[in-house]
Each structure stands twice: as structure tokens, then as C-alpha cells.
Write a structure and sequence with these properties.
Largest interface: A-B, 24 and 28 residues
Radius of gyration of chain A: 13 Å
Number of helices of chain B: 0
Number of strands of chain A: 10
Oligomer: heterodimer
Helix content of chain B: under 10%
Strand content of chain A: over 45%
Number of strands of chain B: 11
Helix content of chain A: under 10%
Strand content of chain B: over 45%
Chain lengths: 109, 113
Amino acid sequence: EDQVTQSPEALRLQEGESSSLNCSYTVSGLRGLFWYRQDPGKGPEFLFTLYSAGEEKEKERLKATLTKKESFLHITAPKPEDSATYLCAPQGGYNKLIFGAGTRLAVHP
Amino acid sequence: KAGVTQTPRYLIKTRGQQVTLSCSPISGHRSVSWYQQTPGQGLQFLFEYFSETQRNKGNFPGRFSGRQFSNSRSEMNVSTLELGDSALYLCASSLAGNGMEAFFGQGTRLTVV
């Protein structure tokens, strides 16, 4: 059965304090691993897609990496505007994203 | 370039009624998938359409159905509404699905009373 586990559930950081979010997955027929950011009351905002182990992608203060069983989202020197829920979603099957429960990130000035 | 548009943004319905939600994908995108988001279950996949054909389906009862039109716009329908159907319904648009980037709309907030 497909499973996705994100940790930690919640993370509180001081502005400038770097950290990493984890996504562990077991998905058959993996077609890609997606990361999204979601603000309250809004739809998820696309961040990255990773396709193969060893792949890395960066966007501003965010860097996503992928292994065969895990993905990490590294946040370097975060700012308060980075506060959001970060969702990991492996894709197994036609456009079927399997979402984790997310990590709620709060960055305080 | 316009993003994914979902209408209406908010809906209040009574138990037993039915509801239809609409999703207009990004221009040129042919794959539309639907998700239900609740505080308890998170984001769960409902179904995916590509070129008017349902290619994939999640584990939801038959009360949940959808369709896609020739212009790629999609609708989902929920019949005989239950209180537990209250959720944020999101659609995602992709060029062709199958590993390609998927972009979400703002969702329709459905409340069943």
C-alpha cells in the first residue's frame, strides 16, 4: 500500500535558523516526487518535482533532494514569509498525487 | 497566463442534496485531477481525467463522480450529500499528468449542513 510520512508535524524556527523537513515514502510506480507549499485557505502552490535519486532542485531559500525512499526540503536562513504548510506528494499513477500530512512551519522574527 | 480557476469558491448545501463543482485548467493543459482536503484526512485523490476519459480513480464512494469536456474543463458532482463531505475540493491541472508538474486552483469550500 502506498504510504507517505512527513516529519516533523510542526516546526518553529527563528528567522535565519536553517532546518530540514523530511518525507519518507513507499509508492509503487513512482513517476515523480512533488513538493508544495500551502497557505491557510488557499490551494497548494507548486515548488519542485524530483524524478530520480540524487536529484536536487533549488528555489530561493529552498532546496529539495531525493533518495530512493526519502526526500528532504532544506530551508536556509528562513524568513517569516516562509511560514506555511509544506506538503510532499509522490505521484503514483496518472496524475495521482499521494499527499503526506504536511509539516507546519512557523518562522518567527 | 491564467491559472487554474475553480467555481464557486464557497458553497453551503443541505444533507441529501447534490452539488456540482467546476474547474477550468490552465490553457493547453489536458489533465485535470480532483482532490478532497479535510483536517482529519488531509489531501486525498478523487479522480483524474485526460482528453475526456477518466484514467485513474481514488477510493471514494460512487456518489462522487466527474467528467471532462472537450475544452478540458472539468466538473465533479457529489450526490446525496453527507455531513462528512464538508471539505475543500481542489483541482489540479497538468499538461498530460504522468509525472508532469501539476498546478492547483484555490479550491471550492463546501459546507454541508
